[in-house]
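Z., the sequence and structure:
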Amino acid sequence: MFPSRQPRRFAVAAFSLLAIVAAACSTSTAATGNGGKCKPAASPVLTLAAYSNVYDVYGKLTSSSGTFITDWKAKHNDQTPIFQASYGGSTTQAENVVNGFKADIVALSLDPDVETIQKAGLITHNWKNDLDASHVATSAVVFDVRPGNPKHIQNWNDLTQPGLQILTPDPAQSGGARWNIVAAYGAAMRGQVPGYKANDPADAQRLLEGIFKNVTVLDKSANDSLKNFDSGNGDVAITYDYALQQAKAAGGEDQIVVPPSTVAIQTPTVVVDKNAQEHCVLPLANAFVKYLHTPDAQDTFQSVGFERPIDVATAKKGTDNEPSIKDFFTTDQLGGWDKLQSDTVFGPNGAFTKAFKAAKG
């Protein structure tokens, strides 16, 4: 239905495959010198594993004509970094790195995916103590509806109406899917969803069950879910706000609905120490991740990627591209990701675990 976004999304898939093949086939960028110390290559290669929706913004940030590479060349005797990248579902990307994909940097959708890599021993520094807790941008979970909003969707309870067809990614593969679930759960727990009591886990579970009874497709990534919606499937897609703004900027007919209460999506980008050290690019990788927090890079996140500022209070107020949000909460206000993952939402007796089983059998 909305062809304007299709070419870019198919290009993402093709580029990801080529990047993975290139990474698998490439030789080390480092040469070992005396004493076992590595010698950086004249054109060191940095491998980035990223979640699906940040293709455009990281393409700009890693461009050969971009600020980071031109500044690095000027300060390092014309040494020219080369970036190769892979894009896919955040959780799948984290598992790929654990299973041998030699990424030097990961740009993932949520903290638990970074922790998966850390627990495997590949990230050795305390990344949560890095600048801005390693978060490089903020966004919000919103609804992508058909032009004119024919199903009159305004809040989370509207997603439970009989016969509605909802698209959202698979939480086993996609970080965005888990953000969507936490957004609905949190809005209910905060008393911001009509018909659902505040601070009542059973009612939050009831909301999730009603939503997932209407979920018709669980795609492997947020990118694939939106592509599926664009092809004419479903009445509404639950997704990132900036992904819809990108589509609108490209001429799409997507219509954004921001629920009154939604979660602040805080996305981390972290150096994979063990791989970067092995490839003799650790200082370069650290410099690039540090650069992402500069005003220059933040302008790219917001002007190219349509994301919100890192600071949640500032992000709540909106930008030139993104509307303000009435109740913009963080995962910390719900007990933190560790509790959400192991207990209240995704744990064996968590609200989503029970709701999904009841909805899907």
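The longest helix spans residues 6-25. The mean pLDDT is 89.

Let me know what you think.
H.
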